[in-house]
Write a structure and sequence with these properties.
With about 100 residues, this protein is of the alpha+beta class. It has helices at about 15-25, 50-55, 70-85; strands at about 5-15, 35-40, 60-70, 90-95. It has one domain (about 5-95): Alpha-Beta Plaits (2-Layer Sandwich), CATH 3.30.70.
């Protein structure tokens, strides 16, 4: 098994949640699991689709986190840039010092 040395975080508008879940599930060779969190957020590049979001100045977001191999994370981001090219989808990759299960 490859070294699990990074955490890929993806954040998107809630309307894109199912599409990103599909992409993550389609790559079991590199994404061995992920967690999702409901969130609120805003950015300069974000389009606020509903009137409520426009008034509030932020939108319903979903954050995905997957601990994975750095090369695989970069490959997945490259894939998403082609398949889901959208400036409203943010990502970042952070190092993971240790990862395991309490078995």
């Amino acid at each position: 098994m490859k070294e699990m040395n990074c955490c890929l975080t993806l954040v998107c508008h809630r309307s894109m949640e199912e599409r990103l879940v599909t992409h993550l599930l389609e790559h079991p060779e590199s994404v061995h699991g992920f967690v999702m969190h409901q969130a609120e957020g805003g950015s300069q590049k974000e389009k606020l689709p509903s009137m409520i979001e426009q008034v509030r100045g932020r939108s319903q977001r979903v954050s995905f986190q997957a601990v994975m191999n750095l090369e695989d994370a970069r490959a997945l981001v490259a894939h998403l840039k082609v398949e889901e090219s959208n400036p409203e989808i943010a990502y970042w990759i952070t190092p993971v010092i240790d990862f395991g299960r309490l078995e």
